[in-house]
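Entry: Erythronate-4-phosphate dehydrogenase
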Amino acid sequence: MASLRIVADENIPLLEAFCGDLGPLTRVNGRNLDRDQLKEADVLLVRSVTRIDQALLAETPVRFVGTATIGTDHVDIPWLEAQDIAFASAPGCNASSVVQYVLSVLSLFLQRSERRTLDGLTVGIIGAGNVGGRLVRVLSGLGVTVRVSDPPLESIGADFPFAPIDDVLACDVISLHAPLLRDGPHPTWHLLDRQRLARLRGGQLLINSGRGAVVDSLALLERLQQTDPPLVVLDVWENEPTPVPELLDRCWLATPHIAGYSLEGKSRGTEMIARALRQWAGLSMTPAMEGLLPPPPVSGLQFTAQCAPLDALHRALMTCYDPRDDDARLRKLFTSAVSTGQSSGPSFDRLRKEYPVRREPTSLSVSVADTGGNTEAARLLSRAGFTVST
């Protein structure tokens, strides 16, 4: 096989290990990538910040494009097909990472609300694809009442607890995982518009870790400036990488599009597009992701019989990932940008590029005291993805 010239986003991990033998690999800033950088490229590997279309790829030698992400709304797939350019994405690669993010946010919400049980808690999920569907299964396993809005999946008889969107928006917690669609029978652009946001009440929690423009950000800001606003957690932003500062100020938690940024999630995305690339090139796939990941910073926890089940789950989740750390880093960035009159965009992207290592619950072994009272703790921890022993 002839050597392949690969251009890749600098934030795709482990690419040298998966593809270093295929040919020269050039790393680039994905958000600022232009056609001149692709004049001698056979392969382009990106993340969601790069728009893939005719304007970028016309008259370049690129014949394979891969995105190490679940979503593909940044890719003009019909144009690629018309040009006979091969394409691969990584559906589901970071689903468990986003679920981890939502569970950690939900655990903080339960602490804030002083809830001691999951009984009676309702969670509405909009979009039940790879991420939303996994979240439905995890929350249902934890004993949470879940309501789902996903008209396309409902129309084909998918097995989820579907409900009208108004019922979903009436839940204690609402988590958004819909793809961004501007047209078609079920558009999601500004799905949560001024009218729907007006119906949210104080005490509710709205989490968006899907696509920023599913929520009308200016309408959301107006709602948060009114009396009795809901709690809002945003990981994705309509004006990314320069969110509206006033909106960020009024969020309960704000993070820089990193819900899917666990080391496992990012590495799984790399593995999936590397496998597709190697298959396109007629080569076998080596090595496996599991052999490339370093040991986790914390490998084990031990809970005694004195730790209540929900508290054990909270402590384990926070050990793996505490969203307040990312919130603090983002707010510090914006405070500095505002005080100096600079754009927050480059620093927003730097937070993502220099993101600290974060591991998923599967990396953490949890020991629970072998007593009858701790059966529930072991069940909750296991359902949340931890490796549990008694």
